[in-house]
Amino acid sequence: MIEKKQKKIALLGSTGSIGTQSLEVCKDRGFAVTALAANRNVKLLEQQAREFLPQLVCIYDESLYTDMKAVLADTNIKVVSGMEGLLEAAAGTDADTTLNSVVGMIGLRPTLAAIAAGKDIALANKETLVTGGKLVAKAVQEKGVHLYPVDSEHSAIFQCLQGNDCRQVKKIILTASGGPFFGMTREQLKDKTAADALKHPNWDMGAKITIDSASLMNKGLEFIEAAWLFDKTADEIDIVVQRESVIHSAVEYVDHAVIAQLGVPDMKIPIQYALTYPERYPCSCEALSLFDYPQLHFARADEETFTCLKACKESFRRGGVAPTYVNGANEAAVALFLQDKIKFLQIGDLVNLALEQAKKIEHPTLQDILDADKAARELVYQAVR
């Protein structure tokens, strides 16, 4: 009997919500962790490093490099920082798979670096495909690596496609929780605070993605990500609000049969599937009991009130760097909202402003994408001065 080789994981964003749950999965499955990367949380990153003993640790905030180096001085773990350090964490160890769960646009370059190094990708950083979908798709094909979705919705679609002919898919049904402001009017939303927006009804997530869920920006980004992951046009993807977050997404086939994936709202399920595909194993999460959900509620997404979603869909149709402008403006606007410098509805206004001013570049290079991201952020800062 041939013994299976121990799987090795490089984890980017290890101190965030997805990252900490990913480490629980690695521990449950006995995977080795070869690299850990985090933004600023020195204390938690040190604890993780001492437990999992990676070859390398990256603290992205360069001002914290000395502190990180000091707390791990008694170990043999290499400590790096900044973007160059993040690229090394993504591609510079003997990991089989790089799990990218960093937040925001900074995830694109590490994903490309890991692909170039021949690593399989478990992707929880949706901005990678939103901004660089064409570049990433080309790189994956050229290097012959695999890209597995970690987002619960995209994992659900991936699971619903197993054993079926993708050419027989009529459409993808992407579900959304609707967030904490579901059903509200623009008048009701005008004075909502960051504290209000952070009260997600179903999921426990980081601040940025929770705000994005409240504005439906997150679903807009996932719409673009789904199009790249599953090679679909905008017209082949529907968005349905499923308030309980039990149906994670579905696929409709040409014969009108709809296959859906259900489960409790727990990210360990999609994380584990991305890391163990095609095998399934017991998961340390709660089992779904349908008796706990005697009613499931569905609704259309309100794109007129939550204008970020509409902007994302339009940016995908326009292509080029339009999605990058939309994403960059949103990242800047959400940061300002969390600092109480703008109102909630201004997030959508700024995202749409960026969309209208996006440059038209049909086949953007990586540098074009980085420049577009910078331009979108500067546009936001200038608009709120």
* Largest sheet, strands/sense/barrel: 7 strands, parallel
Number of DSSP helical runs: 16
Q: What does the average pLDDT come to? A: 96
Q: What shape does the CA trace take?
A: globular
Based on secondary structure, the structural category is: alpha/beta
Proportion of residues in extended strands? 15-25%
Helix-strand string = EHEHEHEHEHEHEHEHHHHEEEHEHHHH
Which residues form runs of ≥5 with pLDDT under 50?
Answer: none
Question: What is the tally of beta strands?
Answer: 12
Q: Enumerate the strands of the largest sheet in spatial order, edge to edge or round the barrel.
A: 4-3-2-1-5-6-7
Measured as a percent range, the helix fraction is 40-55%
Quaternary arrangement of the chains shown? single chain
What's the short version?
With 385 residues, the chain is of the alpha/beta class.
Molecular structure report:
This protein has 385 residues and is an alpha/beta fold. It is 46% helix and 16% strand. The chain is built from 16 helices and twelve strands. The strands form two sheets. A seven-stranded parallel β-sheet has the order 4-3-2-1-5-6-7, with helices on both faces. It has a five-stranded mixed β-sheet with strand order 11-10-8-9-12, covered by helices on one side. The relative contact order is 0.11.
